[in-house]
Amino acid sequence: MFLKKTANIWFPILIILALVGATFVNLRLASTFQLQDDFAPRWMAAREWMRTGASPYSDSTHNATVDLLNANGNEPNSLTQGRFFDPAWYVLFYLPISFVPYPVARAIWMTLVELSLMLSVFVSARMVGLKLHVAEILIMSFLALVFYPLFKSVLTINVSAPYVFLTLLGVYLARERQGTIAGLLFALSLWMVPLSFFLFVLFLIWLGARREGSLAKIYFSTLAFLMVVSLILFPGWTAEWFATYLRIFPDFSWVRTPLVVVGELFPGASMQIAITLSLVTLIMMLVEWYGIGEREGRGFHWKLMLSLNLLYLFNLTSDGIYLLWLFAPLFSVYKYLTEKWRVSGKIIAWATYLALIFIHWRRFQLTQNWLPEESALVILLMPLITLFGLQWFRWWATVSPKALIDSIKLKEK
């Protein structure tokens, strides 16, 4: 009884102590595992701009980043080559942490990545209304930290993780018709998670059919505000950004979506297969979107989960962090399982969840892959499982007005 009355005091303190403890653990992990570092260019861009006024895209900032990575035994990201190439307003997001010494700042960001991973899984479970005990959902959230692709994103300090969480939170809030906050979150994560634009369009249609225009207003207002502020603080940054982009990506050979990975399994016609699969997947998604403004409840939820599943297949670099988008579809399949078979469905859900973790770790043990490029198994296994599961329960979710188990309960009463 006493613990419940004082929960507003001890619970925040417990969380702060846990975050501080995680940061100290991450200091140790960062010194033990010296890998490619995606955080250093952002930290250095903010620090150099504050100290010397140097452009985030300048060669001096890039050289300082490379020196920093060499001094700490890390390597630049193989894709960005240690250069900052985000829109200039993202520099402002890293200013607070740029005052902290780099090893500590890196450990803090690793903690932020870990927190983002757990919250993403938790929000995904809440989004789908997964019928498990809160303790079980928390355990699933913690287990996400040992899911190999996500664990690697912690050690490589993947800067996209917090923005992926913001996108999922935006989906959850938009689903609850809180368009203002959802629009803000979609706008803030647009560059780091480009596929969020399709989710914005999806909810623009759905909320527009309900005459709710707050999503579009705050979305475009936020982007306009960020653009104006960045042009004031970083005059001429657009030309520098474009030059940096062309230096890093002179062609489109860097594009490696999961559908391109499928094409690579057939070397004789890899490009043709990838293009065909991309067109088929895009048409499939647009067909599913037809009439989506009229959908409500379970029917709209199923369409939304399928959209997350299909959009994952278009992420440009097959980054493992995008697997976070698949937890909501996966949990939806678990929800349908537990609705249909209460006990055995829960057993199947936990067995498949643990099996996914084991299979991915087993794959890592065989490959010892610490590079950003993931193997075909890591990229394709989970989306295939969720896509098959969603299609298996299509009628259950879209045609049946409610779960059959609920109908049985009503008859019994």
Secondary structure blueprint with pairings:
Blueprint: H1 2-5, H2 7-32, E1 36-37, H3 40-51, H4 59-71, E2 75-76, H5 90-98, H6 102-128, H7 134-143, H8 148-155, H9 161-175, H10 179-188, H11 196-208, H12 214-233, H13 237-248, H14 258-264, H15 270-289, H16 297-312, H17 327-340, H18 342-367, H19 376-392, H20 394-398, H21 404-412
Parallel strand pairs: 1-2
Helix pairs in contact: 2-6, 3-4, 3-5, 6-7, 6-8, 6-9, 6-17, 9-10, 9-11, 10-11, 10-12, 14-15, 15-16, 16-19, 17-18, 17-19
Structure described in brief:
The protein has 413 residues and is mainly alpha-helical. It has helices at 2-5, 7-32, 40-51, 59-71, 90-98, 102-128, 134-143, 148-155, 161-175, 179-188, 196-208, 214-233, 237-248, 258-264, 270-289, 297-312, 327-340, 342-367, 376-392, 394-398, 404-412; strands at residues 36-37, 75-76.
How would you portray this structure in words?
- The protein is an all-alpha fold and 413 residues long.
- It is 71% helix and 1% strand.
- A two-stranded parallel sheet has the order 1-2.
- Residues 405-413 have low confidence and may be disordered.
Largest sheet: 2 strands, parallel
The helicity comes to over 70%
Instruction: Give me the strand/helix succession.
Output: HHEHHEHHHHHHHHHHHHHHHHH
β-strand percent reads under 5%
Structural class: mainly alpha
User: Ends: how far apart?
Assistant: 35 Å
Give the beta-strand count. 2
Rg measurement, Å: 22 Å
**Average residue-wise pLDDT:** 87
Q: Shape, please?
A: globular
Query: How are the strands of the biggest sheet laid out side by side?
Result: 1-2
The number of helical segments is 21
The residue ranges in which pLDDT falls below 50 over 5 or more consecutive positions are 405-413
